[in-house]
Specification:
Largest sheet of chain B: 6 strands, mixed
Oligomer: heterodimer
Radius of gyration of chain B: 14 Å
Distance between the termini of chain B: 41 Å
Largest interface: A-B, 24 and 23 residues
Order of helices and strands of chain A: EEEEEEEEEEE
Strand content of chain A: over 45%
Shape of chain B: globular
Number of strands of chain B: 11
Structural class of chain A: mainly beta
Radius of gyration of chain A: 13 Å
Number of helices of chain B: 0
Helix content of chain A: under 10%
Number of helices of chain A: 0
């Protein structure tokens, strides 16, 4: 299994500002994933982040709005830029275990935009 | 495009009951299926992982089955307890699209003392 931590756990931000969310894993992993969970809804994949290459974004998500860094095999950041109230969600990072391909999730970052 | 549906959306049962949560998916070409638990405002806890070649997995009071050809999975919870109250999500990994998961909408379970 993998132990994942995220910072911050929650934040309240003003419209038009940006927030960077950090994700730290206790082991080296090839792929890290960023998901969004809007209120009352299920999870939607934002992008997949591989170390040493540009992140791959899902349809409906763009790099200018959600820039991602992946400087090494245990760490990634997701920035939510120029925020609006519609960005209020829980943001979760995830990694895949080797062998079984089981996915593990961090505790999430609860973002509220006012 | 893979779609995952979970029924029922919400379920309320008295403590001690056995219950079944259902998950269906439209594309049977999956690599594996995973059941998660999510407590309010929290992250996801992996409960069970079933590979596409398997028919069921068990962990304690939980048993998950998979019928890949019909696109269905069930999560059976035996002797439910108030601590089981949470949202249960199923997610499938498609064979040909790398490691992304497609999630269902979840079943919100309440177990009453």
């Amino acid at each position: 299994s993998a132990v994942i931590s995220q910072k911050p756990s929650r934040d309240i931000c003003q419209r038009g500002t940006s927030l960077t969310i950090q994700c730290q894993v206790d082991s080296q992993v090839t792929m890290m994933f960023w998901y969004r969970q809007q209120p009352g809804q299920s999870l939607t994949l934002i992008a997949t982040a591989n170390q040493g290459s540009e992140a791959t974004y899902e349809s409906g998500f763009v790099i200018d709005k959600f820039p991602i860094s992946r400087p090494n095999l245990t760490f990634s950041t997701l920035t939510v830029s120029n925020m609006s109230p519609e960005d209020s969600s829980i943001y979760l990072c995830s990694v895949e275990g080797t062998g079984s391909h089981e996915q593990y999730f961090g505790p999430g970052t609860r973002l509220t935009v006012t | 495009k893979q779609e995952v549906t979970q029924i029922p959306a919400a379920l309320s049962v008295p403590e001690g009951e056995n219950l079944v949560l259902n998950c269906s998916f439209t594309d049977s070409a999956i690599y594996n299926l995973q059941w998660f638990r999510q407590d309010p405002g929290k992250g996801l806890t992996s409960l069970l992982l079933i590979q596409s070649s398997q028919r069921e997995q068990t962990s304690g009071r939980l048993n998950a089955s998979l019928d890949k050809s019909s696109g269905r999975s069930t999560l059976y919870i035996a002797a439910s307890q108030p601590g089981d109250s949470a949202t249960y999500l199923c997610a499938v990994k498609k064979e040909t699209s790398g490691s992304r998961l497609t999630f269902g909408e979840g079943t919100q379970l309440t177990v009453n003392p």
